[in-house]
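Sequence in, structure out.
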Amino acid sequence: MFGYYTSMILLLPAILLSVYAQGKVQSAYRTYANVRNGRNITGAEAAHRILQFNDLQIPIYETQGTLTDNYNPQKGTLNLSPAVYEQPSIASMAIAAHECGHALQHAAGYSLLSIRNSIVPVANIGSMLSWPMLILGLMLGAQGDFLFNLGIFLFLGVVLFHLVTLPVELDASKRALIQLEALNCFVSDEEHAAAKRVLDAAALTYLAALATAVANLLRMFAIRGNRR
């Protein structure tokens, strides 16, 4: 069984991947947020076209922040950050289409999206309580075994959430590109490739989140083994 210090080494690649992924998505966004798309359509206009094309009556709202774009399945709303909502850039078009991809998943009853939505409460509880329970279990020594194991069990929900999230996000990006192609939103292959680069960079952040969750789970098992 891995020791505690070895477990820290396991976490290092995940941290490096996370840093790389954040840099990649910020770089892709900054680059293509400043490149106007050939159809001169904003993210809001692209989203409206996709939703209308698929007969979905979903309101589109402008929300606050940067890269805070999301589809809310509970409220049935599409929320776009100001730059995505207002700007006619390649990045805006791609990001808005990606969020529409989630709306299409919801409308089609996409099973992995339903699973992800159902485990959100479990993942939230795991994120908040797993490490406090692990620390308390360590402090209590042998008497804290139950709390320590419970902390690991709760964190499994976090890992499961990230494991399901990755294919959900990849599928939403795939749907986004298909929709943009079907609606003739690209004026060239270069625009298609640029939009794909934006979406691929975003997908890398979800891969990094999964890698970090798995690495932390391995750390927990390593610490548990070191206690025995």
